[in-house]
């Protein structure tokens, strides 16, 4: 049974969400603040996290950052569940490694549908492999990237973006396609997040970042040297 943790300080919303999850066959636990969530996660890591932004002690974006930096939970999908609807907050959540974004008020059926979709993507095929392109190599199971034999430190989404580009070597990929495939959905045609991550990837890969090319009027592609 898949375990879902809901970090939400509004008791009514939290209890309604937990009821819907349990009624749908999930093992679900709710927490009012981050410290309670991390204490539970240390004992049993979740398969998915529903995370509000406005929380006591520390906000959801700080909790998300800690999740992505924790080796035991770095790959756990996170859906931001919040009343904040501004583009800036959405971009911050996505850049921080969120897999989806649901705004309040939300319908229970919509939320359950999003959860199923994110869990389905997270299962995916086993990724016990390494990718290479010229002097760039990616060890997927260990999440290690090297460029010219030098290890490169990437954020969660930078890593996922590089893997997707390398799996599609030589193909011109639109920004919408990258957004949908790496972030899990089309964020209303938003391309700035993709451009920011491409720019950061190029910088971190140094001279080897030239392998990521801009395809005018389309998006990006990565090619071998």
3D architecture notes:
The structure is a single chain. 41% of the residues lie in helices and 21% in strands. By secondary structure, the chain is α/β, with parallel strands linked by helices. The strands form 3 sheets. A 5-stranded parallel sheet has the order 2-1-3-4-5, sandwiched between helices. Helix 6 (156-167) crosses helix 8 (192-205). The longest helix is centred in the middle third of the chain and has 16 residues, at 108-123. The chain is elongated, with a radius of gyration of 18 Å. 33% of the residues are buried.
The whole-number mean of residue pLDDT values reads 86
Strand content: 15-25%
SSE pattern: EHEHEHEHEHEEEEHEHHEE
Structural class by SSE content: alpha/beta
Number of strands: 12
Unreliable stretches covering 5 or more consecutive residues: none
Largest sheet: 5 strands, parallel
Counting H and I runs of at least 4 residues, what is the number of helices?
A: 8
Helix content percent band: 40-55%
How far apart the termini lie comes to 46 Å
Widest sheet, order of strands: 2-1-3-4-5
Radius of gyration: 18 Å
What sort of overall outline do the alpha carbons produce when their principal axes are compared?
A: elongated
In short:
The protein has 225 residues and is of the alpha/beta class.
Main features:
8 helices, 225 residues, alpha/beta, single chain
Set out the fold topology:
Elements: E1 3-7, H1 11-23, E2 27-31, H2 34-43, E3 48-51, H3 60-69, E4 78-82, H4 87-95, E5 100-103, H5 108-123, E6 130-133, E7 136-139, E8 144-147, E9 150-152, H6 156-167, E10 173-174, H7 175-183, H8 192-205, E11 212-215, E12 219-222
Parallel strand pairs: 1-2, 1-3, 3-4, 4-5
Antiparallel strand pairs: 6-7, 7-8, 8-9, 10-12, 11-12
């Amino acid at each position: 049974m898949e375990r879902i943790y809901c970090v939400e300080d509004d008791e009514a919303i939290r209890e309604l969400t937990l009821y819907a999850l349990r009624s749908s066959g999930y093992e679900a636990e709710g927490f009012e603040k981050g410290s309670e969530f991390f204490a539970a996660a240390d004992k049993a890591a979740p398969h998915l996290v529903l995370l509000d932004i406005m929380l006591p002690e520390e906000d959801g974006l700080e909790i998300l950052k800690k999740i992505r930096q924790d080796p035991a939970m770095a790959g756990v999908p996170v859906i931001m569940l919040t009343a904040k609807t501004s583009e800036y907050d959405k971009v911050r959540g996505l850049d921080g490694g969120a897999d989806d974004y649901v705004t309040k008020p939300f319908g229970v059926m919509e939320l359950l549908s999003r959860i199923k979709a994110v869990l389905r993507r997270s299962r995916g095929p086993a990724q016990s492999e390494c990718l290479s392109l010229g002097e760039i190599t990616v060890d997927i199971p260990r999440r290690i990237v090297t460029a010219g034999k030098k290890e490169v430190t990437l954020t969660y989404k930078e890593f996922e973006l590089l893997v997707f580009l390398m799996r599609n070597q030589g193909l011109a990929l639109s920004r919408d396609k990258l957004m949908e495939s790496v972030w899990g959905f089309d964020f209303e045609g938003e391309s700035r997040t993709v451009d920011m991550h491409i720019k950061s990837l190029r910088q971190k890969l140094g001279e080897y970042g030239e392998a990521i090319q801009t395809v005018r009027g389309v998006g990006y592609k990565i090619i071998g040297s």
